[in-house]
Amino acid sequence: MFLENTVNHKEQFGWIEVICGSMFSGKTEELIRRLKRAQFARQKVEIFKPAIDVRYDEDMVVSHDANEIRSTPVPAAANIPILADGCDVVGIDEAQFFDDEIVRVCNDLANKGIRVIVAGLDMDFKGNPFGPMPNLMATAEYVTKVHAVCTRTGNLAQYSYRKNQNENLVLLGEVNEYEPLSRAAYYKAMLREKVKNMKVNEVEEVNTKPKNSDA
Known about the structure:
By secondary structure, the protein is α/β, with parallel strands linked by helices. About 30% of the residues lie in helices and about 25% in strands. Helix 3 links the parallel strand 6 and strand 7.
């Protein structure tokens, strides 16, 4: 977990907290919880999200459970430092959608004495580390990995399986586009896709082969 009270009160410093996991794991829910606690403590809080994320609301950070907190949409990470001037706490949602500059921005804010709380997907739909998240997790003081429940096995889920054939890395969606899967369920689903595509390609190859003509 993370510490909200430091031991050495003479040393003024900030830190970075990263909340990561799959789709439907409660990342944004936990982000909102921590930020609202800071607001209740009358700390100056600013929240940011990528401008492309308009699934629920243009200005609010909204969890799947409909909890929300007002935020400032920004097109790039470089916009955050100016808007965060004078803050005690900075929250950043959907960090995987930001450019790599977000890593330097978060570290600069923490070095100025600001508590930075970041939430984002740690892996994309292919199971690969997503955008700047690995570097954020590496430089953060505290990393919390949350899990969803696998829709097929009931076990803990850490993969975000995309249910359609769209190959774009960034695809905003909900339960119609994604489902959380455990490692075993994800592996089986990807294997079925691979076999299905192989069969389709083999049929196409047979159909396009020229027929032998009689001499």
